[in-house]
Write a structure and sequence with these properties.
alpha+beta, about 120 residues, Rossmann fold
């Protein structure tokens, strides 16, 4: 196809006449720097999964989409699952990992682990 996954996702999401505009979209990629994961999220993807991928991991991500249904947002600038996550209080004895998040963003082309990718999607 002529489209890359981001363009195809955006085109599917913004086509209001499409019957499948709200269908969950999982982007599978071998390269997952933060910039690319954020681009997929901003295009309207529900999840990003890093290659190589075990069948059990893919099945888990599909099941997660069924368990954690997010509101669908339609605006002039964005169409896709709600990107906002409500942050509740941390469990007792658990500290915020802000230092880890800052370290990840300080090197924009660093490939993210699957856990890091998943954390961006809740």
């Amino acid at each position: 196809p002529e489209d890359d996954g981001f363009s195809l996702t955006r085109r599917l999401r913004f086509d209001s006449a499409a019957l499948n505009a709200t269908t969950p979209i999982i982007i599978v990629s071998g390269h997952t720097p933060l910039k690319k994961v954020a681009r997929a999220r901003d295009a309207g993807a529900n999840l990003v999964v890093k290659k190589p991928i075990a069948p059990s991991t893919l099945l888990d991500r599909i099941a997660r989409l069924g368990r954690h249904v997010r509101q669908f947002v339609i605006s002039d600038a964005y169409v896709g699952p709600d990107r906002r996550f409500r942050k509740g209080p941390l469990p007792a004895g658990i500290e915020e990992r802000r230092a880890e998040a800052l370290a990840l963003t300080s090197v924009p082309e660093r490939a993210m682990s699957q856990d890091d990718i998943d954390s961006l999607f809740g």
